[in-house]
Design brief:
Layout: E1 13-17, H1 21-33, E2 37-42, H2 45-54, E3 60-64, E4 66-67, E5 70-71, H3 73-82, E6 86-90, E7 106-108, H4 113-127
Parallel strand pairs: 1-2, 1-3, 3-6, 6-7
Antiparallel strand pairs: 4-5
Helix pairs in contact: 1-4, 2-3
């Protein structure tokens, strides 16, 4: 995927949390094509939390809101505390997102992989 809007992903470490294997693989491929280093993908909240403990340097995160029936909020809290930009991917309506997280960028499913990739690229670019 050659797209100048993705330049901010070059050499950036991006966490991917997605429990649908095929979607996760497509996201990973798009991020790698854009020059990112992918952390994961992980498919559970526990795996995501373990990865956060193991990894000090994370530049961004693409997070499915519901991983195997558990919401991603504990992971979001850690990322917010670290100042890591993120994009939520969800099939939930905005009203289902807790008010404390409503300000976070969100892509509603079904969403194209390019749209997700561009969304995290925009969030990372804001920090450069």
């Amino acid at each position: 995927m050659t797209d100048s809007s993705l330049a901010s992903l070059q050499d950036r470490r991006v966490l991917v949390a997605e429990d649908e294997y095929m979607i996760a693989e497509e996201i990973v491929e798009a991020l790698v094509d854009a020059g990112a280093v992918v952390l994961g993908p992980v498919s559970t909240v526990g795996e995501a939390l373990d990865l956060l403990v193991a990894e000090n340097e994370i530049h961004g995160a693409l997070l499915d809101v519901n991983l195997v029936g558990r919401t991603i909020w504990p992971v979001v809290d850690v990322l917010l505390a670290r100042g890591v930009p993120m994009v939520l991917a969800t099939g939930y309506e905005a009203s289902a997102i807790p008010p404390v997280y409503i300000h976070l960028p969100r892509c509603e499913k079904p969403v194209g992989i390019r749209d997700l990739t561009r969304a995290i690229a925009r969030q990372i670019a804001k920090l450069k």
